[in-house]
Amino acid sequence: MTTSDSGKDITLRIAQNPEADELLGRSPLAALVGMLLDQQVPMEWAFTGPYTLAERMGSDDLDAGRIAAYNPDAFTELFTTKPALHRYPGSMAQRVQQLCQFLVAEYDGDASAVWRDAATGDDLLKRLNALPGFGTQKARIFLALLGKQFGVRPTGWRKAAGPYGEAGSHRSVADITGPESLAEVRAYKQEAKAAAKATKTTAKTTKTAKAAKKPGRSSPDK
């Protein structure tokens, strides 16, 4: 457990595992890696990944320099060893290593430097969006997580985070503070997914109907 920019101790409940959450709270790199892994797997699985990875590397924390220099095949094996760290362990091992190589090259291996002196929310979003494996949505969610739970709040951070920065929302991992909020976030995601599927189905049906209404092409007279 570390201290946030606001002077408060950071206690997370994202992984729903005390040891994994403790690591996320004190290790900026672990938090970044957890966010990177948070796709196509349950959130708890993704954010427990950094703790499991650290254990398999024989350490109590993650080190960007060590990961960046790790033999790629051996690093992939750390992910693929059962239980696997992700649904797609091979590709995610590569992404984590690319992230760490970027941090070494651009931030001297210090993950917290990504946000430590960001002047504005837009500046921070730009920095996060530049990280390997971080698209705009993932960058906004992590920005919201930094603001809501780590006390990293440069001017305009909520606006830069988009809807994920809204107070009282239950849209993403940034809003998870325990089992109840986890259930609320999961319900929101399921509803959003169902709505997107319904919209896609409606669009497809409309397109098919329009195609059926088009008059057939007449054959030219011979």
Give a nutshell description of this structure.
This protein is an all-alpha fold and 222 residues long. 60% of the residues lie in helices and 0% in strands.
Structure description:
The protein has 222 residues and is mostly helical. The protein has helices spanning 18-26, 28-37, 43-56, 64-69, 72-80, 89-107, 113-116, 121-129, 136-149, 157-160, 179-213. The protein is globular and about 65 Å long.
What is the topological layout?
Blueprint: H1 18-26, H2 28-37, H3 43-56, H4 64-69, H5 72-80, H6 89-107, H7 113-116, H8 121-129, H9 136-149, H10 157-160, H11 179-213
- What's the story with the biggest beta sheet? none
Strand content: under 5%
Taking the alpha carbons of the first and last residues, their distance comes to 84 Å
Which spans have pLDDT < 50 for at least 5 consecutive residues?
Answer: 217-222
Structure annotation, total helices:
11
Average pLDDT, to the nearest integer? 90
Q: Could you state the order of secondary-structure elements as H and E?
A: HHHHHHHHHHH
Helix/strand structural class: mainly alpha
Let me know the number of strands.
0
What shape does the CA trace take? Answer: globular
Using only C-alpha atoms, the radius of gyration works out to 21 Å
Can you give the helix content as a percent range? 55-70%
